[in-house]
Amino acid sequence: xxxxxxxxxxxxxxxxxxxxxxxxxxxxxxxxxxxxxxxxxxxxxxxxxxxxxxxxxxxxxxxxxxxxxxxxxxxxxxxxxxxxxxxxxxxxxxxxxxxxxxxxxxxxxxxxxxxxxxxxxxxxxxxxxxxxxxxxxxxxxxxxxxxxxxxxxxxxxxxxxxxxxxxxxxxxxxxxxxxxxxxxxxxxxxxxxxxxxxxxxxxxxxxxxxxxxxxxxxxxxxxxxxxxxxxxxxxxxxxxxxxxxxxxxxxxxxxxxxxxxxxxxxxx
Length: 268
Ligand SMILES: [Zn+2]
Description:
Layout (H helix, E strand, L loop, with lengths): L10 E7 L2 E6 L2 E5 L7 E2 L4 E2 L15 E3 L11 H8 L4 E3 L1 H7 L3 E3 L5 E3 L5 E5 L21 E5 L6 E3 L6 H10 L5 E5 L18 H11 L3 E5 L11 H10 L16 E2 L8
Parallel strand pairs: 3-6, 6-7, 7-8, 12-13, 13-14
Antiparallel strand pairs: 1-2, 1-15, 2-3, 4-5, 9-10, 10-11, 11-12
Helix pairs in contact: 3-4, 4-5
Bound molecules: zinc ion (ZN).
The site of zinc ion has 5 residues, from loops.
């Protein structure tokens, strides 16, 4: 297992704790949902573990993806500092409004073109039970997923905090080839919200999402380090096994690359 460090992979995906994931692709380093605080209380949420890799050990970063800015398990205090000091943040329109001048807010299916040739397309995400959708079209708060595409690189789907398999089916329909899926599991639940029902995929539903996408490689994040996560990595592994999908699950210790140096059509 190779530890995530300043050394960039030609292609790499690795989780460093909670939702926080590093993606190296097309010469760029992308960090998803930065959280770097030590264990702490945030009122209704309790963080039980700090990051496996400190922010300083990542070196320069090119893009930070913030699926939503409202919840500390996806963007904590030092994660917010990390994001706003990066050259570019992509998030929801409401997130971009509070994250400053380097942030761009994307609506679902809006496409962002990076000068390097990379494109990032925002996807929908539903952060809780489908019967709780507001007239504005979201549950809990506005959340984005992201589809990352670049010449000669695997296509990566970043799901964000999403509990809806319909959303995943729509992503699969619009983007039939997703080489790597980064999905948030954990079965997050908060007693005060929606009858304590899951706000993100449970282990079984993250395996179902992987089946719908048909991706040959799947990395699961957002399943450790917080008290409100019901399902951990062992639950995810069992669920993928139950679904007959254990071979696609790329698990690694936090802080090391789950996938590295993969080229499209030549899965590692
Ligand atoms: Zn959230």
